[in-house]
Write a structure and sequence with these properties.
The protein has 140 residues and is mainly alpha-helical. It is 73% helix and 0% strand. Pfam families: DUF3040.
């Protein structure tokens, strides 16, 4: 949704005030890409995954009974959490998976009737299967 003229003027005033108050910070914020942030998250997740593998291996080496199980389970959970964290960061960095979020969420969405949209419809596997099922049941 585009900003109104009043909102654009207010935003420009806020930006100019920020540049006047702290130009170094304003330049750093403007020049930093969100992808850099997600790359850092992926690196941290990879480091956490390696730590999780180490904890899992340490749990297998320790011969203390319940401590072994606790350390191994903690290492495994850390590996899973880091994988999820890295995958979500990767998706956000590359833009994969944003089509469903922008499209309204799915639910009762019809593939064929896009309401006269001028852009081509991107269909996924489930959308194609639903369309086939709809055509089959309607007898087309």
């Amino acid at each position: 949704m585009p900003l109104s003229e009043h909102e654009q003027r207010m935003l420009e005033q806020i930006e100019s005030a920020l540049y006047a108050e702290d130009p170094k910070f304003a330049h750093a914020v403007r020049s930093t890409s969100p992808q850099v942030h997600y790359k850092r998250r992926i690196v941290k997740a990879a480091f956490g995954f390696v730590v999780g593998v180490g904890a899992l291996m340490a749990g297998l080496v320790i011969n203390e009974g319940t401590v072994t199980i606790a350390v191994s389970v903690t290492g495994f959970l850390l590996m899973v959490v880091c994988c999820v964290w890295a995958l979500t960061s990767w998706k956000r960095m590359t833009g994969i998976g944003n089509e469903a979020a922008r499209g309204g969420g799915g639910g009762g969405r019809q593939v064929g009737g896009r309401g006269g949209s001028s852009r081509p419809a991107k269909t996924g596997f489930m959308d194609r299967m639903e369309e086939r099922w709809r055509r089959r049941t309607e007898g087309d």
